[in-house]
Queue: 2 jobs
Job 1
Amino acid sequence: MTDSYPKPENLGDRGERFWDSVTSTYKLRADELILLEDACREIKLIDKLEEAINSDGAKMIVTGGYEQEVANPLITEIRQHRGMVARLLNQLKLPEESRGSGMSPSDVARKAANARWGNAG
């Protein structure tokens, strides 16, 4: 893959590794780059939330508003952000079979649909 995409700043370590992995494997359109950047930023946010919950003194169970024991709200936040990453990646539609083909994810999907329905393409 010869295309080079400028890496956005402040993606965090895992976000940068994911950006590099995807952009070195796939040819992406502008809208796909936005989804990829959003996914990388979500990955960074998840890492920060996990760091906060794993820090010294953080508790998995905290006292709720009615003095009851509840799960630390960061656990819910992490789960929600992981779901967002999954949705963004689903929207990005990075097919495994396109690796090294130089085709965009949408081109690969179009080719697969044409093959399935017997259309030339």
Job 2
Amino acid sequence: MMNTREIAPAVASLYSELVNGIPESNGYILNRGDSGLIHSLDKLSASAASATNPDGASVAAHARHVSYALSVLNRWANGENPFQDADWAAAWKKSIVDIDEWDALRDELRRESAAWEKNLGSR
């Protein structure tokens, strides 16, 4: 049976591939040439990220939700208990972003994602 320390580097590597795309050496989850979540979001304009689906959710709202979830996980990994007062609905309240907000949101997602990858690898 594997313990957490044995599997953590593999999980961190798979997570990195999903978020950052396939490394030059080899990939395990994505198809060759797939750019991963963050680079895929970088290809969208603020107006495209703000377009809503029939349920009213936009790519920007989804990105905000993922970023928030990662921030909660990072706080938890750093010894806090952020689950008790987590506001999971907040991300869905704003679907439309302008250029500056979209840039800031993607930067926040990059930071939280990198921190989570580091936390995964250190377990």
